Amino acid sequence: MHCKVTSIQILPGVFMLTDRMGMHMTLLVGTKKALLIDTGYGFDDLLSAVRCITPLPLTVMLTHGHHDHACGACQFPKVLIHRDEEGVFDYYANNWRSRVWQQAKAKGLDLSDWTEEQFVQTACRNAVFTEETEMDLGGMTAQLLHCPGHTKGSLCVYVKERELLLPGDDMNPTTWIFFPECEGLGTLISSLEKLEKLPFRQVLCPHHDKLLPRSEFEAFLSGLSRENVLSTSAPAFHLWEGKKVYSCHPQPHFTLCYDWDKLPENWK
Fold this sequence. Notes:
By secondary structure, the protein is an alpha+beta fold. It is built from 8 helices and 17 strands. It has a domain at 1-146: 4-Layer Sandwich (Metallo-beta-lactamase, Chain A), CATH 3.60.15.10.
C-alpha cells in the first residue's frame, strides 16, 4: 500500500486530505489531539499521510458508512460511527469492495501496490458506536452532531474555533438521498435547519475541494422549499433501477437527487 494522499491546510489546524480516487477527508489538529474525519476509498496509506502532518494521538470518525468514506477504516484500530450506521458500514465497507476495485480500474488508476484479492478480502470490523459528543483537541473543539438525511446515522461536525461546518454528505454540489438507507427530504431539511442555528461562517463539503461561505449553505437550504423542488425536478430514474428518482436544483451549481416516494406526503 502506497501513500498517494495529497494534503493542504485550508485553515489553521484544518487539513484537507485527498486520496487517489479524489475523495476528500478532513484532519483537525489541535494542541493535544487530532481527529480524522472519514477514511476514503482505502487504497492509500492514510495513517502515513496523517503522520506527515502530526504525531499527536489520533481519533478517527466516519460521517457515515458509505464506501467512499469508510473503506479505509480497516487501516485503524477503531473508528467512531453513529449506532444507526452499523448495517450501512458493514455492507459498504466490506461487501462493496469488489465494486470499489472495479470503479478504480475503470478510472485507470494505478493499483499496482494492491492485488484485487488483497483489497476485496480486507475486512472492516472495527466500528465503535458514538452518539452526539464534543471532543476537546486542545484549542480546537469538534462537536459531533447526529444529522440524518443522506443516511439515518449521518454525523456532521462543527468546529467552533474555526467557525467551520463539516456537513458530510448531507450537503454537496451533488447530494444523493435516494439509496434505500437514505432518509426522506423532510428529514434532510430538519437536519439542515438544525445546523443552520450554529454560528458557522464557512462550510467544507467532502465532495468539493474549496471552502464555501455560509451564504451557500443558506441558499441550499432555502432552495429545498416545496415550490422550488417540484418546479425544478426532472426524472433521473437511471440512478436506481425501479425507483422514482428525481433531480432538482436547490441553487445554481447544486443538484439534489431524491426518492420521490420519500417526499413529505403533503408535497405530492
